[in-house]
Amino acid sequence: MVAAIALGVASVSMWKVHQMSAPEPVITVNQPQAPPEFTPKTLTYEVFGAPGRAAC
């Protein structure tokens, strides 16, 4: 009878120690989302006048 009670107390004690030493749940953070795709604008410069002349 004493052995059964001792075994029960030991089992409950080990179960409680196991619960207390369990790691905390891992908090996951979502990675930042990729920026939306975009098409860069293409600019065309038109230059008028003779080469070498400064604009005034």
TrEMBL record:
It comes from the Bacteria. This is Conserved membrane family protein.
